[in-house]
Automatic annotation (TrEMBL):
Transmembrane segments: none
Gene3D superfamilies in the cross-refs: dinb family like domain
Domain DinB-like: 36-190
The species this protein was found in: Flagellimonas abyssi
Protein's UniProt name: DinB family protein
Pfam family, one: DinB_2
InterPro entries, per the entry: DinB-like, DinB/YfiT-like
């Protein structure tokens, strides 16, 4: 009887014990942090020293000002981070691996490409809800800092979590680089405003 119980115990132990989850690769962390850092620093560089008149300038009535781009980024980045945390909480979904639509090196140039214009959804239209541009920028930078601290400390397997975007499925690592690319896209839009011939001078 004892001889039968021991093998049974082994079967039960291994049958109900899950393999430890694979942790995020250090190279993925470096890749993600590079884009989060570079896009943030590019934005700060562009905004540095701009007057209220420059921040609020619009090349035409249908264009966004630099300040409105900052607010749009604050609104969308908050939503993106919430989406990311939901994808992490939903747990691994290896069955979605074959659904990926982009390779890693395609993510950043695809979203930052300004040749394709996209109209945002109404909830992400700028409306001045954060207050001043300084307050709006503070909110945006706080969201970005929270995201970067998560990446620096997490051991979550971001390659096995997924998010569904309008253009298809991405894994969580790609999604975070998408967030960085979205910021870069709007920083480029800010630079386009600054290049307008009637942009206020210092």
């Amino acid at each position: 009887m004892k001889k039968l119980l021991f093998p049974l115990a082994i079967v039960l132990f291994f049958g109900f014990t899950k393999d430890p989850e694979i942790q995020i690769d250090s190279k993925d962390k470096e890749w993600i942090m590079k884009h989060l850092t570079e896009s943030r620093e590019h934005m700060k560089q562009v905004l540095d020293g701009l007057s209220d008149e420059q921040l609020d300038y619009k090349p035409d009535p249908t264009s966004w000002s630099i300040a409105e781009n900052v607010e749009h980024l604050a609104l969308t980045e908050k939503m993106f981070v919430e989406m990311l945390h939901k994808s992490i909480a939903d747990g691994p979904k290896p069955e979605l691996k074959d659904s990926l639509v982009f390779k890693d090196d395609q993510i950043m140039p695809m979203i930052a490409d300004r040749s394709q214009k996209v109209k945002t959804a109404e909830p992400f239209e700028p409306s001045g809800q954060f207050g001043s541009t300084e307050e709006t920028l503070g909110a945006l930078l706080a969201i970005r800092q929270e995201l970067m601290e998560y990446i620096e400390t997490t051991e979550d397997d971001l390659r096995n979590r997924y998010a569904k975007l309008p253009f298809g499925t991405v894994d969580a690592a790609q999604f975070i680089v998408f967030i960085a690319g979205h910021m870069e896209r709007h920083v480029l839009q800010m630079e386009e405003v600054m290049e307008d011939e009637d942009f206020p001078q210092m």
